[in-house]
Amino acid sequence: MTTALVVPDGAQASARIVQKSPGVLAGLDVAEMVFARLDPALRWRASAREGEWREAGEVATVEGPAAPLLAGERTALNLLGRLSGVATLTARYVKAVDGTSARILDTRKTTPGLRELEKRAVVTGGGVSHRKGLFDAVLIKENHAALAGGVEAATRAALSGAPDGMVVEVECRDLGEVRGALEAGVRRILLDNMAPDALREAVALVAGRAELEASGGVTLDTVRAIAEAGVDFISVGALTHSAPALDLSLVLEPR
User: Fold this and answer.
1) Given 16, 54, 108, 109, which residue is catalytic?
2) Do 85 and 135 lie in a common domain?
3) Of 141, 197, 209, 255, which residue is the catalytic one?
């Protein structure tokens, strides 16, 4: 309503989307779709590449009718800033473990309605996306184990009932649970909230019999030590639940 009240009929404009803080761009096509949905007459031209780390500068230009351009400004910037923020934080974690064999994973701790986009942004930042929902893998957590009679019993039940080829992973909080998971025959173990020394013990105990994922309270300050413990994966919920948005603005010029 505000746009319609103050923009003259037929007004045309050109706008520049500008990146104001360093980071990885993600979601350029999503921002473009916002404007196209409002008015196909709006012309989008990207001046930066998806997945590119940039310090600052022009990201894209949008030209055409002024009213739909202004109407889409905040939605387009919100999505582009959010997704670029996820990609940027992911890139920082990936850089922090460079030279180790560990890969950075996302989790299901995503914004409602944005899971597919946020997980795509993780990949854009160099991370690995896994487990989109409860349908594509089985993860046995502490609550499941408590109801099933322990980690080993829960793991055996899941392995016997899972469809062929589906990944079954079990969360373990100590070496005793790791032994139980191995006895049950699981091929992937999530080491939950273990300190680096405990992680190294788990790596030695497993000795390649299962893939190992570390998770729980991982930060940029701790991720390197976790990776050097020898785990295969490190899952970081912060990638999607705590990533700060990349700072972007839209600068408009009447035509």
Assistant:
1) 109
2) no
3) 141
Based on the residue annotation, tell me whether 141 is a catalytic residue of this protein. Answer: yes
For residue 70, give its domain range.
Answer: 2-89+244-254
Q: Collapsing DSSP states into helix, strand and coil, what is residue 246?
A: coil
34-52 tens-digit pLDDT? 999 999 999 999 999 999 9
Catalytic residue among 171, 177, 213, 232: 171
135-166 tens-digit pLDDT: 888 999 999 999 999 999 999 999 999 898 89
pTM: 0.93
Q: Verify that 111 and 179 share a domain, yes or no.
A: yes
10 Cβ contact list (under 8 Å, min separation 6): 65
- Note whether 84 and 100 are same-domain residues: no
Annotation says 109 is catalytic: yes
Torsion of CA 144, 150, 153, 158, to 10 degrees: 20
Catalytic site includes residue 171: yes
